[in-house]
## 1
Amino acid sequence: MASWQSLGELTVSNDWQSFSSSVIAETFRITTTIVNQDDWDKWKFRSAAYLRFIYIDNSASVRYYIRVLDTPTVYRFEIPQELKSQLFVLRTPQIIRASRYLPLTPDGNFAQWSFKLEALQG
């Protein structure tokens, strides 16, 4: 029976951050949570995130644009066939802030939000 494996939860920032676990999965559930709703609604810049995967040969996937949503959302990020054929299927997810206000705006000027990543196993 399939189940969701937590890969962790990170607060999105202006720097690439790696999740602690590497995975083979292609189906993921992402939950975004705003830390301070007032900052999000009134005082600070909003943002999204880019998600990418780093493979064991040190290559990187394309960047996937992820918006802040009210409900957990399931995404499919396929491993490229050429990497599957070389058995390079283990990959480490990474995130970074996505905003038109970058790179000049410091972390503190953005509303904080967290990015929870789960992989479908089994």
## 2
Amino acid sequence: MANKAIDALVYCPFYISEAKTSITCEGIIGDKTVNQFVSEKDKKEYENNFCVGKCCRGCGVYSSLMYKYTPENYNKSIAAYS
């Protein structure tokens, strides 16, 4: 069961958690990416614009991770490290 209202509303598959002025998502490089905000108001506005709706496609983290997980790009990145 969600412990915060945002946890129940999140649409983005890469969202992990939030704190007072940050949002933690799956990592672009490494395990996690943390977005820091100047204020709680700014963070909530970002969540409303990107995390809880299908507009997450406009988020840089979402876009980067979707690119990473696209099969042809995933295969290229594996080949680059082989």
## 3
Amino acid sequence: MAYRFKYYYKDGTIEKSNFHGSTPESLYNDFDGLMDWDEFNQLNEQDMTTKRVLEMAMKVYKGFLKDFYKIEIINDETDEIVDSIEKMIKK
């Protein structure tokens, strides 16, 4: 099985990440090059959860992706949502 991030943008578009992982928790490997190397390297030693991966994704992708408000981890084969995180949109 493969897992990906799915991004929801404020303009109404949706996009799946190019990166995929064999487990939902392994998606943190996509952060390589987007965060401090020492901090990234320490992630291998920590117990990762989908919640933690999504919280980190919200921080790491800010500035690298266009204006997104929601990220999901999905099963790439079934499109089933494993976990998601959403930030409040200011009106």
